[in-house]
Amino acid sequence: MQKFLTARWQDLIMANYEVPPELLERRVPAGCRLDLQDGKCFVSLVGFMFLETRVLGVPIPFHINFEEVNLRYYVFREVEGEVRRAVCFVKEIVPRWAIATVARMAYGEPYECWQMSHERGENNVSYTWERAGCKNALAVAIDSNIGVPAEDSHGEFIIEHYWGYTSRGRDRVDEYKVEHPKWELFSVKDENIDVDFALTYGEEFGFLTGAKPYSVLMAKGSEVGVYKGKRISI
Predict the structure, then answer these.
(1) What distance in Å separates the CA atoms of residue 234 and residue 31, rounded to the nearest whole number?
(2) Weakly modelled stretches of the chain, pLDDT under 70
(3) Is the pTM of this model over 0.85?
(4) For the segment 71-104, what is each residue's pLDDT rounded down to a tens digit?
């Protein structure tokens, strides 16, 4: 299987919200089911850095290092007794139109291009994204290193997903694999989540604006490989 993209994902802030499953059910790709933790359904607002990016092993000038912010949810699919835990995306935001275009064409993912920036201090990380007067920010102060999360913990549920599924029309779903080692997590404090969820992600997510997240975590990140997607039988 060929790796389509390689990169290093770094400083992943993950603000996790418990939501009603009915909010996401219509979005779940055919052949998949919502992945719940102890009966709870989550969406995660994730900001991180894409670094040293290469497509088919080739760096693309001016598109090597950039920010991404996404809103994602969790699904799984059973394949011959194997449970493939996966993420799906409501929207993925990047600062380069070419990245958004390639991702939409290659994977069918809901990418958009917004103006973005980030700051990384010794003990703080922040991401901002704005377009057409809608300005959003996600920031944390880094607290203690809590290591690789324990098996069956909330932290493991949020970060241990190695597959992705995308609906590409009425009768097509694509599957792709994501490869990376287990991540160390950090606890955070003084989080600032200033996001207009309705304007950014749709009215159905507007109730998350100003809501207190179930948890906020930060992962150190690592090198990753994203394999070329393939159509699955549904």
Answers:
(1) 6
(2) 1-2, 56-63, 103, 105-107
(3) yes
(4) 999 999 999 889 999 999 999 999 987 777 776 7
Q: Which CATH superfamily is domain 3-231 in?
A: Acetoacetate decarboxylase-like (2.40.400.10)
Q: pLDDT tens across 104-123, in order?
A: 766 677 889 999 999 999 99
Q: How many Å apart are CA 94 and CA 45, to the nearest integer?
A: 14
How would you classify the pairing of strands 124-131 and 134-147?
antiparallel
Query: Do the strands 111-113 and 82-94 form a parallel or antiparallel pair, or are they unpaired?
Result: parallel
- Could you give the C-alpha distances from 206 to 41, 43, 200, 203, 227, in angstroms and in order? 17, 13, 9, 5, 33
